[in-house]
Amino acid sequence: MPSATTDSSAPPTQASPADQPRGRRANPWLTLIAVAFGLFMVGLDGSVVSIANPEIGRDLQASTSDLQWVTNSYLLALAAALILGGKLGDRFGRRTFYLVGVAGFTVASVAIGLAGSIEGVIAFRAVQGFFGALLMPNTLGMLRAVFPPKKFGMAVGIWAMVSSVSTALGPIVGGLLVEHVNWESVFYINAPIGIIALVFSVIVLPQSKNDAAKDEKFDIVGVLLLALGLLALVFGVVKGETWGWTSGGTLGAMAAGVVVLLVFGFYETRVAAPLLPMRLFRNRALTIGTVITALNFFVLLGVIFFVMLYLQNVRGFSPVEAGVRTLPLSLASVVASPLGAALTDRFGPRLTMPLGMALQAIACFIMLSWSADSSYTTMWPPFIALGLGVGMVMSSSSDAIVGNAPVRDGGVAGGLQATALQIGGALGTSVLVSLISSRVGSTLTGELTSAGVPAAAATGLEEAKDAVAMGVAPVSGEMPAQLKGAVIEGSHQAFMNGVHTSVLVAGVLCVVGAVVAVAGVRRASGQPVT
C-alpha cells in the first residue's frame, strides 16, 4: 500500500531537476485524464466485440471457430506482450510507448472495419492486441511516476472506475451501433476517441522512465520465453472449452506454457537486467494482489458472459435491453472503485481485498436462486453486489501491485497487473462456460422428460446440448405448440442447472480469495521492494 510502503530509491520521475516537468506537464491529474482516454478505448473495445460477433459472422460468412479467433487472436497478442510493453516504457519512456500504443490501437481498429474478410479481421485484431499491450501497462506506470504515494491510491481508484465503466458500457454501446449502424462502427468508434487521446496526451503527458536502465542489456531471451509461455498457457485456456479440459491438446498446451514460464522465472533470477524482476514477488501484498486480480476478473468476465446469455437467449431481451439491465453493475463499480481506493489508503488492502471478494461471493450465492423466469427484483441485488466487489478489489489489488513496486519498475508492475487480469478473464469465461456445458450435458434429457417431452424425443435432442449451454432452446417451427413449450421449459431448466453450478464454484473461489487476502496481507504492505 503506497501510504505505508514507498520506494525511496528514486524520485518519482527519476529525472534531474532541470528535466523535471513544468506547467501543465507537472499536473498529475492531467496525466490521469490523458491515460483515461486510452484506457476507456481499450476497455470499451474489449466488451463491444462480443455483441458484434454474430453480425460479423453473418456478413463475412465466418464459422464459429473463426469468430472465436476474433476474440482469441486479440487476447493472445495482448497477454503475450503486456509485460514487454511495461518494460519498454520503463526503459525508453512510458509517455512514448503509451502514445505508440494509442496510435497503433486506433489505426488497427479502423483497419478491422475496412478489412472486408474474416481473415483480415482476425489478423488486425492481433495487431490491435499488441498495441493495447503497449498502452495498458504504461497507464499505471505513468500514474505511479507522477502521483505522490498519499494520492496514488485515489488515482488508481479513478483508473479502476474508468476501466470498469468502459467495460460495462460495451454491451450497450455495441448493441446500439450494431442495431442502428453496422458492425464496423463498433471499431470505427475508436478513431475519434484515439485522436482525442493522442492530441491531449501530447500536450499534457510528461516523460518518465528508469534512467538507470539505459545502459543495461535488454533481456531478449526473457522476452521470448515469457511470450512463448503465456501464448501456450492462454491458448490452452481458451481452447479448453472446445477441445475439452482433459484432452491431450489442452493439457499439452497448458503444461508446455507452465514449463516455459518456470524456465523463464529461473532464467530471470540469473540475468543482470531481467524483463520481470523476481525480487518484486518478495512483497507479499504485491504477490497476493496479482492472484486476487486474476480471480477478480475470473469472476467478473465469467459471470457477465453467462448473464448476457441468460438475459438474451433465455429471457429474450435485445443486446441493448440486456445491457441496460446490467447498468446497476456498472453504476456500483463507479462508486466502489474510488471508495475502495479511499478505504485502502486508510485501512490497507487487508480490509478492501477480502471485503470485495466477500461481496462477489454474496452476489454469486444470490444467483443460486435464479430461475428461467425470475423477476428483475431478484437480478439487480447481485448485480450491485458484484459491481461493488469488483470495483473495490480492482482498485485495492492494482494499488497493492503497482503501489508496492519501485517507481523504476512501474511499467513492469502495470504489465504484471494487466497480464493477471487478462489470464483471469480468459480462465473465467472458459471454465465457467465449460461447467455450464458439462452440467447441461448431464441433466438435459432428464429436464426435458420432466417438462413433458417424450423420452425418445428427449434423447434425440441430446445432440443440441451445445445450443442449450448457450441458453438456446432447440425448437423448430414444425413442432406442435405443446411440445415446443415443453422443450423450451426443459432446455432452459438445464441451462439454469449449469448456471447454478458455475456461480457456486465462483462463489466458493471468492470465499477462498477473501481468506487468502486476510491471512496473507498485513496492514502495512510489507518491506519496500528495492
Automatic annotation (TrEMBL):
Compositionally biased residues, Polar residues: 1-17
Protein name: MFS transporter
Membrane topology value: Multi-pass membrane protein
Region annotated Disordered, chain positions: 1-24
The keyword Cell membrane is assigned to this record: yes
A GO term, aspect molecular function: transmembrane transporter activity
Domain Major facilitator superfamily (MFS) profile: 31-525
GO cellular component labels: plasma membrane
Subcellular location: Cell membrane
Keyword field: Antibiotic resistance, Cell membrane, Membrane, Transmembrane, Transmembrane helix, Transport
Pfam family, one: MFS_1
Alphabetical GO biological process terms: response to antibiotic
InterPro entries: EmrB-like, MFS, MFS_dom, MFS_trans_sf
Chain segments annotated as transmembrane: 29-52, 67-85, 97-116, 122-140, 152-173, 185-206, 218-238, 244-267, 288-311, 323-344, 351-371, 383-402, 414-436, 499-521
Domain of life of the native organism: Bacteria
